[in-house]
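A reminder from the course coordinator: this example appears on the midterm review sheet, so study it carefully.

Given structure:
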């Protein structure tokens, strides 16, 4: 399939009519007055489709706002230190290169160039950070003149911009540093809270020892970020503003392609996930496509996003549609074996054997047997039977652990016959037989234990037991129990 065919297919999926979307919602729910699917599709239908120029414009806005956000975030020494730690782990082989650094998998030359920059850039950044720590001490020390302190702040700014440039040359993914905006916001809030606590304590003329821990924490946060309270507050405010513009641009590109998600999700209904779950997973794939889209390559966004949406949905179906999760690679094997089994059924006119299926599918017999066993869907024992909530599937299954009524009745009859036969013996003989064979409480007593009970020797108990057994073996008594012998 060439590029024009792929574009036309994606555009056809992207432009379903509003009536078609509502028809999908009505298929999903018979009572759709408050149906969330219908409400979602109705709201989505009000969002206009994007033209090619609008797509490019939004992609440029995403690129611009992302660059501004990264620059503002990386200008903080704390974030630079985190970035350096991550990049060091990549350089040492502890983290995967392709998942940590933004580089095309197929562009081997660019990957080699970035790998070549790692040693020099990391070493230079560490030198810059060490110099920044020295200048920060000067900038925040009241023992230095105002001019020296201002010069130290200016040097800090120049080195930070250089460090940002060096980190950007290594292409660290935005997702690796994006959570730092929350960390800096927490730092800023904590610094303001500590400053208010310290000032209030001073005003109340409290002893220094009580606020010493607050002062230490206050200074440690500022030293870690190498900011003043005002500069940290301003940086967080600027970060939030730029990040909001970045998210707004991403949202604009994704909202214009929500119909594409629905059109792809329709093809995966009745596979174990609800339609809303399919749409949700597809939207996650759409957001992934927004992050990775490169408009300069000349493809339309819908063409590029289709693969990511389909991949997200198929992975979700494989992972979540079953009560017992099956690995994705096994799902592919199961699909192949099932398809082969259906083909053989049509060709042979009968159910194929395991050996025939395995041979056609190119797998071992044991593997085919295991795959076919895994392909069966488990049924919940609490699943209602029919439309009624009163009975459940588990109520209809036989309990293999329950006692068979016929066996229970036979055992009850046997106990009655044994009691009847034992009554023909003397009291001592009857009790000794019961104790020796556990007919009373299920515990079989030894000769010595029975002797202690009757206060006679174990030999005397053995003689009485032997005499009682001979009596029970007499035909007049044994005939009562003949019918219970296996």
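Designed residues:
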């Amino acid at each position: 399939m060439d590029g024009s065919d792929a574009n036309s297919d994606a555009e056809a999926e992207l432009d379903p009519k509003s009536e078609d979307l509502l028809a999908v919602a009505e298929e999903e729910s018979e009572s759709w007055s408050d149906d969330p699917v219908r409400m979602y599709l109705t709201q989505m239908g009000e969002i206009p489709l994007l033209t090619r120029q609008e797509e490019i414009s939004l992609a440029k806005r995403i690129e611009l706002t992302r660059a501004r956000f990264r620059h503002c975030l990386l200008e903080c020494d704390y974030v630079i230190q985190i970035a350096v730690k991550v990049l060091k782990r990549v350089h040492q082989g502890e983290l995967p290169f392709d998942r940590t650094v933004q580089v095309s998998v197929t562009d081997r030359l660019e990957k080699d160039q970035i790998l070549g920059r790692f040693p020099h850039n990391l070493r230079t950044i560490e030198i810059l950070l060490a110099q920044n720590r020295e200048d920060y001490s000067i900038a925040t020390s009241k023992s230095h003149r105002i001019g020296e302190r201002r010069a130290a702040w200016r040097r800090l700014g120049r080195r930070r911009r250089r460090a940002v440039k060096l980190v950007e040359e290594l292409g660290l993914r935005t997702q690796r540093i994006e959570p730092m905006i929350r960390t800096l916001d927490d730092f800023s809030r904590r610094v303001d809270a500590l400053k208010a606590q310290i000032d209030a304590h001073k005003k109340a003329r409290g002893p220094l020892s009580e606020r010493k821990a607050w002062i230490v924490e206050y200074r440690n946060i500022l030293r870690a970020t190498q900011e003043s309270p005002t500069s940290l507050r301003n940086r967080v405010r600027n970060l939030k503003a730029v990040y909001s513009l970045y998210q707004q641009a991403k949202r604009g590109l994704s909202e214009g392609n929500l119909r594409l998600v629905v059109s792809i999700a329709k093809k995966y209904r009745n596979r174990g996930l609800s339609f809303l779950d399919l749409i949700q997973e597809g939207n996650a794939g759409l957001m992934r496509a927004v992050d990775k889209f490169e408009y300069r390559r000349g493809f339309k966004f819908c063409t590029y996003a289709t693969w990511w949406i389909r991949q997200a949905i198929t992975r979700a179906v494989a992972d979540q549609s079953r009560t017992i999760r099956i690995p994705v690679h096994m799902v592919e094997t199961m699909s192949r074996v099932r398809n082969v089994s259906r083909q053989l059924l049509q060709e042979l006119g009968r159910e194929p054997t395991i050996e025939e299926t395995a041979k056609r599918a190119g797998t071992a017999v044991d593997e085919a047997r295991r795959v076919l066993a895994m392909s069966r869907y488990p049924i919940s024992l609490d699943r209602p039977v029919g439309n009624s909530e009163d009975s459940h599937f588990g109520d209809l299954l036989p309990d293999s652990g329950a006692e068979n009524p016929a066996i229970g009745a036979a055992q009850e009859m046997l106990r009655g016959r044994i009691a009847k036969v034992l009554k023909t013996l003397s009291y001592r003989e009857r009790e000794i037989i019961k104790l020796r064979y556990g007919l009373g409480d299920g515990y079989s007593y030894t000769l010595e234990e029975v002797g202690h009970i009757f206060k006679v020797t174990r030999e005397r108990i053995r003689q009485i037991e032997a005499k009682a057994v001979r009596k029970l073996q007499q035909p007049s008594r044994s005939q009562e129990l003949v019918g219970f012998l296996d």
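The chain has four domains: 12-27+36-49+256-320, 56-253, 328-374, 409-484. The radius of gyration is 40 Å.
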